[in-house]
Design a protein that fits this description.
The structure is a single chain. By secondary structure, the chain is an alpha/beta fold. The protein contains 24 helices and 16 strands. The protein has helices at 2-10, 24-28, 60-74, 101-109, 121-124, 144-157, 195-207, 246-258, 274-277, 299-312, 337-343, 345-360, 402-410, 431-447, 470-481, 488-500, 506-523, 531-535, 541-571, 582-614, 619-630, 635-657, 663-694, 700-703, and strands at residues 36-46, 52-54, 80-82, 93-97, 128-133, 136-141, 159-161, 164-174, 180-186, 212-216, 262-266, 320-322, 366-370, 389-391, 414-417, 452-457. Helix 8 links the parallel strand 10 (212-216) and strand 11 (262-266). It starts with a helix and ends in a 5-residue tail after the last helix.
Length: 708
Amino acid sequence: MKIIKWIFACIVCLPLISNAQVNDAIRLKVLPAPKEVRMGEGRIVLKPSTTILIGNSEDRTAAETLQKEIHDRTGMKLPIELATAAPKTAGHVSLGRLTDRDLSSYLESQGVKVGDELGNRDLDKQGYVIRVTDSGVLVAGRTAQGVFYGVQTLRQLLRPEGKMLAVPALIIRDWPSMEWRGVSDDISRGPIPTFDYLKMQIRTLAEYKINLLGFNMEHVFDFQTQPLVSPRDSTKDASKDAALTPAEIKELVEYASKYYITILPEQQAFGHLHQFLKYEIYSDLAETPHGHVLTPTNPKSYDFIRQVYGEVVPLFPGPFFHIGSDETFELGLGQTKALAAQQGLGRVYLEHLQKVFEIMQPYHKQLMFWGDIAVKYPELLTILPKDMIAVPWDYDPKPSYENIITPYTNAGLRVVVAPGAGNWRAIWPDLDSAFVNIRNFVRDGQKHRAIGALNTTWNDDGESLIDMTWPALVFGAAASWQPGESSIDDFKNSYDWAFYRNEDSTFAGVIENLDRPHTLLAGVKLDNARNELFWADPFSEAGANMAAKALPVTHDLRISAEHAAESLMLNRAKAHLHPETLDDMLFAAWHLDTLGLKIQFTSEISRYYWDAYQNQTDATRAQNDLDEIVDINGRLESLRDAITQLRKMYAEGWARENHPYWLDNVLVRYDNLASEVQAKIVVVQQAQRQYWSTKTLPAPEQLGFFLK
């Protein structure tokens, strides 16, 4: 009671400025943007004498995130005290509960509404109030989760003032627009994050009020009943294996709960099971030999599901379990062909989901399933139990996604919408497309009362580095907390401050430069800056044709990539938060630049060789042409060197995030491309020696030079 009275004394009536005069939420550059902001006059400066006061021990994690932010930015380590009596001085940060009648009544008397006005208690429990005057800071919520989210907003409100930090006088009322705001991370097709990286990922996502983190696992659990499939880093020391063990999962679940994140396991029960079905002992369970889809015609398939789920499900105490079941393209082509012909493919698919639901009943979970297949059979969706949750997904930028949401809502099913980060198969995520996809999909989900959003990352070619995806993940967090259609421009204007605590737009500019190659390549009908373009053999006819199409935009592509690299190298010190994510951005810049260099050099090497071939009687000219290709600092040598340097950078980036498992499967691609270039060096040197002796050169096409 004494601490509450002290708070009352410190927080005086705050003069307010109308929202009509200035959009305060946008000006603050806070992500997600708070729903209600009223600015006051003045500010409070946090000093070494400032104390972080908590009235409940549950709020210690929230207080520690604030303490660390202040320490990292100023060197001050403010004490955290469990308040049992009023302090003798003003100017402290207090974390309180709106369930305290004295506190809530006082705030109401000052024009700060704290009642349940939302009609949704689940959302209200995550809401918070911040009140700042020159006498003190109050962060209050109905629950510890609400207080935690209020503190994450407060962290972004701390502005530098000399060697101290100041908070502007204001009142914020805020609550989420969607109950569940999630990220789904594909850890089953190459990169498997280290335990330390997973913890960092949890902490970072929680800063932006994400409360659901899914892992697409498939085979990466340390199965005892299925010992063949788990990924191994070492055949001798099990402690070095990449597979998640029960002990690690338990620790991760507990760690995430401190940050109010629920871990969502996705263990496939239908498609995407090739990592199992490639083994011969599972041959009778495969729809097609060594394929991807579990056949529903064999009763042993359901025994398999019971075994796998019996190991995995009990480790995750959260309310949800994701059974996957997407992209079952082989269904009806193998063992199920006769049944599908008799009953229809849709019924076979949906009845399998129903059987999995029945298997899962003893665990009392709410089952999610990917919505790409079931949506094709809207007239049959009544087969599914109403407790199941459809997760429609679509990753293309479209004006509307209602056509894949409403079939489920019309059937009485709950929905979680799943946009994507645009990171798979790409040198750098296609963020311009991803932002539109996330914005519109989440908007439509809110319109049709989706219970949440699950923003997805994927590793289709096993190359993606997660630190490249933070802009898309933070935008997904903002869009699912904020109401309606979120502004992409406002997000970009806020991102530097909200993510890096940088006061200008340096890193937003870097991101724009990294995005531009996608637009440039799409403009010449090459889709975007895909890994496939980088790995293509430049001395094949297909590779030469690709280079010819890309060449008109390659100068601009490289200029954008080099501006990004230069800015990152010059301005790293501006990142006062999350500076480690800049390394992946720098790698992406060099990767894009090397793609452009490869395209340009493919053209220039062909042109030089054709010129030498067509002017063989001019020895000086022919020799000069060949020197441009293979002499010291010749183009082939420069291209080889760029590839091998990029390989080193990629390995370093992988090691920052992932277990060694799978890395060699990517590095071999760099080795192969470098070997192709080195082999071409040898071939051209042989042609050069032939010219010295015979004054003749092999035909260009014979050496793989197709561009005249």
